[in-house]
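User: Teach me something about this protein's shape.
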Amino acid sequence: MPEGLTPIEAHKELQHHEHHAERASGWRGRAVQTTEALVLALVTITVAWSGFAAAKWGTESRLQLAAASATRTEANRAQYTAQNVRNFDASTFNAWFTAFTLDNPEKMAIAEKRFRPEFSVAFDAWRATDPDTNPAAPPGPSYMPQYHVAEADQAAALDQVADEHASAGEHAGSVSDQYIRITVALAGVLFLVGIGSTFSILGVRYALLGVGGVLLITSVALILRQPGPPT
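Assistant: First, the predicted structure itself:
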């Protein structure tokens, strides 16, 4: 018997393979299209979330840095007031010391009446150290632990609050930058999957869809590691 197929049989066999290939290609094409649509939908939602988070953290950064600047101004104002208070205490003490060197109790009493109540406490504690005869006594009331200027404490507290605002602002800015980088990566996914749908070769579409899927998974993992948008 002769080997091989007759022309008629070969034609039928070719038609059978072409029909089978079209069916397989059609099924695979529809699967790729469905997957691409699903990936595009997920990427669109993720991009929206990442962009929203970046905007919120950017706003938070600006608010925190503005609060740091305003608080620092208040701290400087309190520090300036504290310096004025110290200068006043020094002037009243100098007046008392001048009267003391002149051995004028009347003027000493007048100077003591001008002392602030907080300074009077430190002055009395200083006099109790017997500075007239005790060489180890502190140089003056302002060197005593009892000497206290409330405005100086306020300035220190405000400085600390300003530092906290500044640190929070820098952190918020860093988080915003991270979300922006993630958004850029997701934009790359949109490009890859979008351009992949223009190719008729399934292998190319598989490759672009695979790369886009890896980028999408990586971006989602990075988002999960970031703090959520501030309220």
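Now, about its shape. The chain has five helices and no strands. Confidence is low (pLDDT under 50) at residues 1-7, 9-24. If you'd like, I can walk through any region in more detail.
User: That's plenty for now, thanks!
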